Each structure stands twice: as structure tokens, then as C-alpha cells.
Amino acid sequence: MVVGEALIDIVVPYGRPDQAEEHVGGSPTNVAIGLARLGHEVQLVTHIGQDTRGQTIAALLANNGVTLSPGSTTSSHTPTGTAFLDAAGHATYDFDFLFDLEPDVDVPPGIHLHTGSIGAFVTPGGPKVCDLAIRAHERSTVSYDPNVRPSLMGDVTDARPHIEAFVGAADVVKASDEDLAWLYPETPADHVMAAWAARGPAVVVCTRGAHDPLVWLAGAIHTVPARPVDVVDTVGAGDTFMSGMISGLLDAGLLGGAAARARLRAATWDDIRPAITRAVEAAAVDCMRAGANPPTRAELP
Description:
The protein has ten helices and 13 strands. The chain is of the alpha/beta class. It has one domain (about 1-295): Ribokinase (UDP-N-acetylmuramoyl-L-alanine:D-glutamate ligase), CATH 3.40.1190. The strands form two sheets. Strands 5-4-1-8-9-10-11-12-13 form a nine-stranded mixed sheet, with helices on both faces.
């Protein structure tokens, strides 16, 4: 189960605003589609409208085998996020955004829950998602990606405790080096990762763009080589990394219910490394395409 925003990404190419294109986006939605393309059964709990853009999202989810949770189409309109690309293909965002969570949402025992990004942060939905993650953690595994968006998250001193509450409810956490730099200025990434691991997660990952990702496991930092590619843009790359990692951990039997959590906490680097490798390969494919467009399993090595 994936919980969080679905929206329309409006991608504006560098120097070519008249050639803007619309793609279905939202970090959790990208993760859900990425997992489905990798062969996993996925339900998305989100908050979209029944307008044309909402219908576009619902159709794409259905075409990719993602089940849209009942109650997910009650918003007054479908959110948008405009991605302005720079000369290197990196994106900055502007949002028209709202998110809420229906009161009867629950996570069945043994079902892995992924959440994060702005839907898990902004009111009124964010605190409800945090409560859901805390409840789910009692009987299911949880993963979290803060996917920091400073323009929507306000003052970092207010944002930090909310994000740390999610970290404490999670078994697996992924953040980018840019996320960590905003949350903890002047603090090295490995120090933040250690502090987050002390709150409870068994695995903490820091992605670093074109550089090798860092993985905190059992008190040590590990890594796998990044894959050099010709970048079209980086939209959705972090989400695709997340779906690849979750996919690998699911296949290894390290996510799900209480028994899977026990296996995850006893896992060695040899157990975890294939999932990180899958994440790197999946993100590399996404970077070679326009917008968020994660690969199928057949497209991975």
C-alpha cells in the first residue's frame, strides 16, 4: 500500500516554456507505478478530483495495474506541480496542492506501507498519514521518503520534528543529500543517517544524484556504484530508486509483517545489496527518459 499525493507534473524545458508537457506525477504515485511495473500488487491511497486531470491519473494507474483506493477521488480539484528544468536537467517546483486522507483508511497486517513527500506533510492530510504509519508499524513494515519540498514545508525547524516522527515509525528510510542538507545544515550526511537509524529504521539510504548512494545498515555505511547515463531529466529518479529498493526488499522477503521485519533487522549487507543495485539500475533508466517513467522488470539488467 502506498499513501500520498497524486498530481499532474507540468514539465517546463529549460528556455522553452512554450513546450511544457504534462505527466502524471507525485512522489508516492511514481513509487506505486514503479512497483507495479516491477511486478508487485499495489494499492494507492491518494486525494484527487474527478476533473479531466484526475481522470488522466486514474486511467494511468489502471493501465499500470495500480488499484486506486476507494475515496481517493473526493478532492475539489486535482493538484499540479510545475517542474522548471535548468540547463543540466535538474528540476525546481511550484505547486497547486492539497491533500487529505479518508478516515477509514487502514493497513492490513503483513502489508508493506510506503509513504512520504508532501502529502504526508501538509495539513490536513499529513498528520493523519503519520498516525496511520505509526499504527501500521505495529503489524506491518513501513518505508518513508521525506522528498523535501521547501516551498511547501515552510520553516525547517517546524518541518524537522514532523519528518523525524515518520522516521521513527519506519523500517526503511530514503532521502537525498539535498533533503538532508535542507533539514540539517552543516551536518554530514552519515551523521544524519546514524541519528535517524537510532530512531528505529533498520536501513537508511542517502541518494546523491550521479554519485554512489550511501546505505546505513547495522552501524556501518555501504554503497554500490552509480550507473553513468546520458540524462534527459531527473524527474522521478528518486521515486524510481525507492520503488526499485522496495521491490528488491520485497523479493528478498524482508518487507511485510512481523516476521519480515525480524529478517530485515537481522539482514547483512549481502542480503540488502541486491535491492540497492536494483534501485540504482531503475533510477538510471528513469533518468534517460522525459518525466517520471520507471522501468518494467524486463528493462532492468
